[in-house]
Design brief:
By secondary structure, this protein is an alpha/beta fold. Helices cover 33% and strands 18% of the residues. It has a five-stranded mixed β-sheet.
Length: 227
């Protein structure tokens, strides 16, 4: 019996402002997860807000301005590419209500089907349930989990996606949440967990490509012990 593969996208946007009706998406990024593992596949694009001026407050947050974005198409113009990449994946978003409202307004303008709440996972809501009464913005969660914010001088959709990828993993229980080790009794008998010396274990030889991908993945982990 085949096990269904679960595809999720870590998603983040930057916008010209906070008005759902008036403002426009000017940057969007997605990272593909299959069974909660980052595949390396991503979608990242800047967009021209056209006749909408980016507010000084927003520019101060993300550093994007109308001059830089002039050479790009609008999100509405490129929306088919986004829809094709998104497909029917679950979207993992910090403060999903904001991003989905912005995306859905574009979808409505283009006569496309909107994203339903059931297609989203809001990490802000997950964090609020796990840490009630605490600060649960992305910066605060990164600090809580020891995730480096060195690259986050300004908000950036692609940078924030990589940060959220690590935060989401921690909210699920951490990267090694399913790993169990042996526990020995006083006579050195295995009492629980996996016996890594068991001759029945399948021996797997890693290819050079597998080793290279593993090394790249390790670079995403702050202060990891596996190098």
């Amino acid at each position: 019996m085949e096990t269904k593969v679960t595809r999720k996208l870590i998603l983040d946007t930057e916008t010209s402002g906070l008005d759902f009706e008036k403002d426009r998406i000017i940057e969007i990024a997605c990272l593909e997860l299959v069974d909660n593992i980052f595949t390396g596949k991503k979608y990242h694009q800047y967009f021209n807000p056209e006749n909408i001026n980016i507010s000084p407050e927003s520019e101060n947050i993300h550093g994007l301005n109308n001059e830089f974005l002039r050479e790009f198409n609008s999100f509405d113009h490129e929306i088919e590419k986004f829809i094709n990449f998104m497909d029917d994946s679950i979207l993992v978003i910090h403060n999903a209500q904001f991003d989905i409202s912005m995306i859905n307004n574009s979808l409505k303008r283009c006569g496309k089907e909107v994203i339903k709440d059931s297609q989203t996972i809001c990490t802000l809501e997950l964090a609020k349930k796990k840490f009630p009464g605490s600060k649960n913005n992305l910066n605060a969660l990164c600090r809580r989990f020891g995730i480096s914010l060195e690259e986050r001088e300004k908000h950036s959709a692609i940078t924030d996606c990589f940060l959220l990828l690590q935060v989401y993993n921690e909210l699920l229980g951490g990267k090694q949440r399913n790993l169990k080790f042996n526990s020995l009794d006083k006579r050195n008998r295995v009492t629980k967990g996996m016996n890594f010396n068991d001759e029945n274990f399948t021996k797997i030889e890693l290819s050079e490509e597998d080793k290279a991908k593993h090394s790249e993945m390790l670079k995403l982990l702050p202060n990891n012990l596996w190098q």
